[in-house]
Amino acid sequence: MINRNDSGLSIRESSNVVNENVVNENVVNENVVNENDLNDTQKYKHLWVQCEKCYGLNYKKFLKSKMNICEYCGYHLKMISLDRIELLIDPGTWNPMDEDMVSLDPIEWDSSEFDSSEFDSGEFDSGEFDSGEFDSNEEESYKDRIDSYQRETGLTEAVQIGTGELNGRPVAIGVMDFHFLGGSMGSVVGEKITRLIEYANNHSLPLILVCASGGARMQEGSLSLMQMAKIASALYDYQVTKNLFYISVLTSPTTGGVTASFGMLGDVIIAEPQAYIAFAGKRVIEETLKTTVPEGSQESENLKSKGTCDFIVPREFLKLTLDMLFDMHFFRNRK
Ligand SMILES: [Zn+2]
């Protein structure tokens, strides 16, 4: 009898389990519906860009005509280097230099031995380039990663250099692109910037460097750190020996080795509003010093009040401001 009761119970229990399974099936069906919604969101993801500050969705098609400024909060979103060149250089005057220079793998980087969470550029990624991307690519070799970024961005490296005219005045300009491996500075980025400075030096051109970088490129180890000294000495010749005029433009984010070298060496340093400018990132400081970095303390407004930069210029006035600064410089030198 006891056995029968037991078996009876077990049958009832199992029927309950079956019912639960039915419920679960319903849940599964709901999930399927949600997944379809998600697929729709994914399907149209490429049409929108989410603001890093207010999380508002900006329609990509109109974003370029608005200079990548968020229509809800006015935050200056990241810009690809090509758009930046279009914004600053007169149409039809852009002459790129050293476009075929490509990174090799000088120290045969093995990413599997490395904790990608410490990767400089990973920290500042948001929106399209979240740090998750670095995790999923963890097993890719450095060379493969360069290849895939080249396919994605159509660029050969994280900086574009060249000459062009700014309101009719010839200038040498280098524009970093955060979308290429977090704008990190490896030996090719350093070499291209150095060559640009030397070209500007030889042709007595004013120089603009637009910074956007997660810092030195870890995959090239100390070779990327050497770029800081190389660029700084080329700038010494340019600024001190030849007395030529260099303006650095700091966009969000400008960090690490770029901040610590040419970012801070401009005769005039311009920052974009609310741009994240730092040497070490917030997370690194907090983990190392076990303190909290106050909100906004690494943004251009706070840094300007400490004397780190000279002007904060909204994007729509950037070309005009550069033009005025060059006017003043050449007027002073003419006297
Ligand atoms: Zn916004």
From TrEMBL:
Recorded GO MF terms: acetyl-CoA carboxylase activity; ATP binding; carboxyl- or carbamoyltransferase activity; zinc ion binding
Pathway assigned in UniProt: Lipid metabolism; malonyl-CoA biosynthesis; malonyl-CoA from acetyl-CoA: step 1/1
Zinc finger (C4-type): 51-73
Compartments (UniProt record): Plastid, Chloroplast stroma
Occurrences of domain CoA carboxyltransferase N-terminal (ranges): 47-335
Reaction equations catalysed: N(6)-carboxybiotinyl-L-lysyl-[protein] + acetyl-CoA = N(6)-biotinyl-L-lysyl-[protein] + malonyl-CoA
PROSITE patterns associated with the record: COA_CT_NTER (PS50980)
Principal place of residence: plastid
One Pfam family, short name: Carboxyl_trans
Cofactors required: Zn(2+)
Top-level taxonomic group: Eukaryota
Keywords associated with the record: ATP-binding, Chloroplast, Fatty acid biosynthesis, Fatty acid metabolism, Lipid biosynthesis, Lipid metabolism, Metal-binding, Nucleotide-binding, Plastid, Transferase, Zinc, Zinc-finger
GO annotation (BP), single: malonyl-CoA biosynthetic process
Residues holding Zn(2+): C51, C54, C70, C73
Segments for region (Disordered): 113-142
Assigned EC number: 2.1.3.15
InterPro entries named in the record: AcCoA_carboxyl_beta, Acetyl_CoA_COase_Trfase_b_su, ClpP/crotonase-like_dom_sf, COA_CT_N
This protein's GO CC annotations: acetyl-CoA carboxylase complex; chloroplast stroma
Cofactor binding description: Binds 1 zinc ion per subunit.
Listed Acidic residues bias regions: 113-139
Family of this protein: Belongs to the AccD/PCCB family.
Summary of the function given for this chain in its UniProt record: Component of the acetyl coenzyme A carboxylase (ACC) complex. Biotin carboxylase (BC) catalyzes the carboxylation of biotin on its carrier protein (BCCP) and then the CO(2) group is transferred by the transcarboxylase to acetyl-CoA to form malonyl-CoA.
Quaternary structure (record): Acetyl-CoA carboxylase is a heterohexamer composed of biotin carboxyl carrier protein, biotin carboxylase and two subunits each of ACCase subunit alpha and ACCase plastid-coded subunit beta (accD). Acetyl-CoA carboxylase is a heterohexamer composed of biotin carboxyl carrier protein, biotin carboxylase and 2 subunits each of ACCase subunit alpha and ACCase plastid-coded subunit beta (accD).
PANTHER family, A to Z: ACETYL-COENZYME A CARBOXYLASE CARBOXYL TRANSFERASE SUBUNIT BETA, CHLOROPLASTIC (PTHR42995)
Protein's name in the database: Acetyl-coenzyme A carboxylase carboxyl transferase subunit beta, chloroplastic
Species: Cheniella damiaoshanensis
